[in-house]
Specification:
There is one protein chain. By secondary structure, the chain is an all-alpha fold. It has one domain: Hypothetical protein af1432 (Orthogonal Bundle). α3 crosses α8. The longest helix has 20 residues. The chain is globular and about 35 Å long.
C-alpha cells in the first residue's frame, strides 16, 4: 500500500479532524523515535494510520470484532470503543492490503499499549496521547512528554499510572493490559 492511496482512502472515509489528529500523532511519533534512535519510519506510519476506525459506532466495532475474532478481553466488549485499534488493523490488512505485521500489531494495541511492543511502537503509543492538541487540552500531559524525550519506558509508566488514576476517579473501565504493561516493561 502506498501512502498516497492511504491518504486518498482516509479523506474518503474519515472525518478531517481525525485525519489531522493522526497526522499530528505521526509527527510526534517520528520525533520521539528519532530522539531515541529507533525506527522513525514505522513509528510515523503507525501514527498516520492508528485511528482509521475510531469514528465507527460502538455497534459497528463490536459487530466487526465479533465476526473476525478480534476481542481479547471482556472489557473490550463492555467498552467497544476500545476495539477501534483492532478493527483499524483489520481494515488495513484486509481492505487496504497493508502487510507490515509490526505496524498492524502496534495499531491494534495503540489505545492500551502492549508489553510485547517493539521499542519504536512506544513512540507511537505516546504520541497518540501527547500530540500538541491533546497537551493543549490537558496540561497534565506536558511533563509526560518531557519524560518521553528522555525515556520512552519511563513516560509509558508515567502515562499509564496517570491514566489509571484518572479512570478510577471517573469510575470508568480499566483495560487489564495497563496492569500487565506496568509489570512487564
Amino acid at each position: 500500500m502506498q501512502i498516497k492511496n492511504l491518504l486518498e482512502w482516509q479523506y474518503d472515509n474519515i472525518p478531517v479532524h481525525r485525519i489531522e489528529h493522526m497526522q499530528r500523532t505521526a509527527i510526534v511519533a517520528e520525533e520521539l523515535a528519532t530522539i531515541h534512535d529507533l525506527n522513525a519510519e514505522k513509528a510515523y506510519l503507525a501514527g498516520l494510520m492508528h485511528d482509521i476506525a475510531k469514528d465507527k459506532s460502538d455497534d459497528d466495532l463490536l459487530k466487526i470484532s465479533m465476526q473476525h475474532n478480534l476481542i481479547n478481553h471482556q472489557e473490550e466488549k463492555d467498552a467497544p470503543h476500545l476495539l477501534h485499534g483492532q478493527v483499524g488493523s483489520y481494515i488495513l490488512a484486509n481492505s487496504l492490503h497493508f502487510t507490515d505485521k509490526d505496524i498492524l500489531f502496534t495499531i491494534s494495541w495503540h489505545t492500551t499499549g502492549h508489553y510485547n511492543y517493539k521499542d519504536w511502537a512506544w513512540a507511537t503509543f505516546l504520541a497518540d496521547k501527547l500530540e500538541p492538541q491533546k497537551i493543549e487540552e490537558n496540561n497534565a500531559l506536558k511533563p509526560i512528554l518531557s519524560t518521553a524525550k528522555n525515556s520512552l519506558v519511563d513516560a509509558v509508566k508515567e502515562f499509564i499510572i496517570w491514566r489509571l488514576k484518572q479512570r478510577e476517579d471517573m469510575n470508568k473501565i480499566i483495560h487489564p493490559m495497563s496492569a500487565e504493561i506496568l509489570k512487564k516493561i
